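chain below, 186 aa
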Amino acid sequence: MSNSNRGEEDVLSDEEAAILAAALRPEMPDPDRAARLKARVMEGIRKESAPKPAEPLATPAAAFRTIAAEGREWRSVSPGVEMCTLREDDEARSILLRMQPDSILLPHQHAMSEESLILEGDAWIGDEVYLQAGDYHFSPAGAKHPLLRSPGGCIVFVRCDREFRPRVSVGLVKRVIGGIVKRLSA
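prediction:
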């Protein structure tokens, strides 16, 4: 959950988080409760039956996805630039980017880390990086991507990963400590 009122000053540094973690005293669970939990976990493990190594695991046909070239759905993202989403879920996205000759993609911020492979044609990233078929490019999450232009047109395969980076903030620490104090005083 995001809180737009939080500022950068509200985030603990790694050193501050380490000091806070070192100051916490481990609390052992009630022995009876721990024994019951362990018994439930062990029972669940016993109930699981691992497939025999000689038996191949069957993958349901629904797990596979094939998109024929003529069946792709392209949408315009700017004049002369189209995108086709091949796959997208909570963790990643795969797309094709198709640029007509002399088209441009304006500078943009990367919300996810991005790997790109030029399949056909050529492209310039800013005025310094020239890519052609077979070339690979990586942009980290949070990076600002300069203008992308394609003199001869191109098709690019792009794979994006959403990276989970939990942030320890002063507000979070206050809520955790408040919860601990509340339990201790109950």
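Helices lie at 14-23, 31-47, 170-185. The chain has a mean pLDDT of 80.
thats it, cya
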